[in-house]
Amino acid sequence: MSNIFQRLARLVRHRWAEQHLRKALPPATLKELELLIAKSELGHTGQVRICVEAGLPWSYIWRDATARQRALSQFAKLHVWDTEHNNGALIYLLLADHAIEIVADRALDRTMSAEQWQTLISDMQSAFQGGHFSVGLVSALERVNRQLQAHFPRRSAANTQRNLPDAPVVQRHLPGRSR
């Protein structure tokens, strides 16, 4: 358990990260990701979401929540779990903590080993460290989509209804600033 000073330092770091969000993921990159998700979901029955936060909300910082806890919360809040074949995936980025989490619903999770998921995350981290957020996210999306197409192919073009929005969710927690 951290003390009050550690929590305040974490809060400052998380609020400070807000100013870097637009640089890391400009509108053109977000649109590219949205189109890639929409196109890929025509080939499989899964649902893929991306959620990016510069920092955690104050309540999460106060209770020392981890990026994984926030990712699991967003997985539920964004209804990624609510797929017919239990094959949704959330790619979650928490910029302030340099954290990447992938939450896969149970059917999709069984198609890859823990080491394969960790390799995907490590490859994203390498791209991000070089400042290549778009490259890292596109590569991760392509790999998740290949997995979904291999194990959950769409059998008919007639049923291409996608339940969830394709646009990445970008969350900001500074008052008066939204995106």
UniProtKB/TrEMBL annotation:
Gene3D superfamilies to which the protein is assigned, alphabetical: 3.10.310.50
Location of the TPM domain: 24-146
Annotated spans, Disordered: 154-179
Listed InterPro entries: TPM_dom (IPR007621)
Pfam families: TPM_phosphatase (PF04536)
Designated name of the protein: Domain of uncharacterized function (DUF477)
Organism of this sequence: Comamonas testosteroni (Pseudomonas testosteroni)
Lineage, uppermost ranks: Bacteria, Pseudomonadati, Pseudomonadota, Betaproteobacteria, Burkholderiales
